[in-house]
Amino acid sequence: MEENNNPIQESGVKTEEYTAQTTQNVGTRKQNSMALTSFILSLVGLIVAGLPCGIVAIITGIIGLVKFDATKEKGKGFAIAGLIVGVIDVVAVIISTIARVAALV
Known about the structure:
Blueprint: H1 7-10, H2 15-23, E1 30-31, H3 33-47, H4 50-66, E2 73-74, H5 76-104
Parallel strand pairs: 1-2
Helix pairs in contact: 3-4, 3-5, 4-5
């Protein structure tokens, strides 16, 4: 006479059905394309063209965060990182421009 202490089985839900429901959605989430675009453009902005790529990275990062749906997509971290690095791109270009103008005076 073994006593069953499994709360899932006590509530009337079979373990097999519960496992099937929780593992069904694994791997079906797609990458948020705006978030990935923001991240890639922010990295390109660090190396090549800071101001244009930084501005586009900020815009796509904001769009990626606003339209992010955690149940269907992954990549929120890419949007946040792209937004932060995009801001760094723009600030670095502004500081560099101010330093060049100050050196001329």
